[in-house]
Predict the 3D structure of the following.
Amino acid sequence: MALQDFYLTIFQMSVVCFVMGGIFPFVFNRYQQLANTIANACTFFGGVLTTALSMKVLRSGVPIDIDGWRIVGSIGMNFHFDALSAFFLLVIGVMSTIIPFYAFGYAQKYFKSKRAGWLGGLVNIFILSLVGVVGVDNSLTFMIFWEFMALTSFLLVMFDHEQAKVRSGGYMYVVMTHIGSVFLTFSFLTLYYYTGSVNFADYHQIGESLPSFTKNAIFVMCLLGFGTKMGVFPLQVWLPRAYPVTPSSAVALMSSAMIKTAVYALIRVTFDFLGTGPSWWGVLMMMIGAITAIFCILLAVIQNDMKRFLAYSSAENLGIIFVGVGATLFFQSQEQMLLAALAMLASLYHVLNHSVFKALMFMGAGAVAEKAGTCNVNQLGGLIHRMPWTSAFVLIGGMSLASLPPFCGFISEWGLLQSLLHMVFDSTGAWVKLFASIVIAILGLSGAFCVVAVVKNFGMGFLAKPRSKSAAEAKEVGVGMRVGMGLLAGISLFLGMFPGIVLPIINAVVHTYFNDLVLGWQMVLFIPFKDDHFQVLSIGLLGIAVITIIALIMLALVIKYGKSEYEIEDTWNCGTIHQVQMQYTGTSFSHPILLIYKRIMGLTRQVEIDQVYEYYPKKIGHQLDISARLADNVYKPSVGILVKVFKKIKMIQNGNLQAYLSYMVAALIITLLWIG
């Protein structure tokens, strides 16, 4: 009991930290340095306490229940942290602990406009909403915190609202997130209709007693509602509009923690509430995830803005997680529990990995925008000499994003690939084998395109010569921003090299759903297995061995041939001086991929030649136009139809008092008839 009270105190202290961090920066906003310090200190200490609470649950396996205050009747603001919610609380806590180092330096750009305190205060309130989403134990308070999270994140997106593109991105975000909320509201109302309760405890395995149609309807509604927040196809349109315009310290938290709350809620509903479903649930999720991964990474490759590239790659990685959760559902429906557990383990590990490297990448992009004045790679170049620390951290984040060993992205994607390979080799149905093979091929292709996108953004942005004056005059960011990026870079390498330290913690979540299995962390590192015969691949030892071999080879070369001698000269250019304009641009780098997939991308290409002489044109104009087919063919027509409908409905708002009184009388009559 004393230990329970101790962790109750930790939770209360973390909430107090976030509340203080949300209020005091506004109070002391006149003193920008003080407000910034208070905001980030509260975020840091709140994150440390939150991390400690989550680790306690994950290591002990004992849930923590915290009673809050009563809202109405028996409905209260209560919290229940089991293994699943504690894992996502861990993601929130770790990010809240590290991001303040970066935010402390980043927020100084707002000192002149007197808004640094506002940014820090909003971030603390935003984190508080995230904690509420993963911690509350009933549908009413869940939706309250879900809308609270939507509101605070909308304010963060709109922080620089003076710019038209910021307002456009914010409006798109708030519309899409509320469309998702409509589906979630209907799904929870359906659960309430069948149980007469809003408590999650009363929903546990309710799917076993629900009619098949109702169970499937709840699943589809939750898929749409949470899929909107995750940004899966075709609901990803808000990501490339909202993320690039959000302050970098805030978007690092949104991309790493906020969209993961949708993963948490989806797992909670499908596995805790609905239980084992038909196999088509998993197939549908895998199909949506695979389409999201390949479509969004193709869009990411052609982006020249680093933040837009990261926004699309976020959708691609959430597509991969979608595939993993879908594979878990499929294996569970087929009673292949070992493979289901492996797919869930890999999916949750990718949740953690993506949180780390995506926050790192957004921090790096924010640092570049801060010191070079732009994130457009066509206007950058040469930053590796001017921002060496940022360049190193972005390179580590990019290699993790591209799932290259020994960084963290590789391990989780390898584990997911393992489970899909067994779907191919161990399944009995020919259609299942074919489908799994297609999904594997799509994920492999999306991984290859991800490497291309990372090479493009790092190569064009950080290598070669500066393409603009601002890039040539860029300087390294301050110590605080470097510390924040450095911590995430170190964690990224640690998670990739030594997964055996982290995977047992995640396995605590898997064990709650597949408690008959003792799933060791080595499962992710197994060479494809059969029954109880395993071959273990130690990534940590393999990485150390590769580094050792390379070092010995380099030493042998130095001993035999001595120190290499070289002279740095200008790039050879047929006897003429190499000009900056002659360098490859981001557009030219991705142009071949554009041509191959022009039908998917909606590419139109126009070449204009000013041919004064027959063989020597005076000028060649090359124009590429990429149409947003999804927006043009789906969203814009839908918006147009809704506008017309609302204009018709608007006729009832005519300003006539007699008409309004008649509406009230009609509503009263209908209500009485309904009650009678």
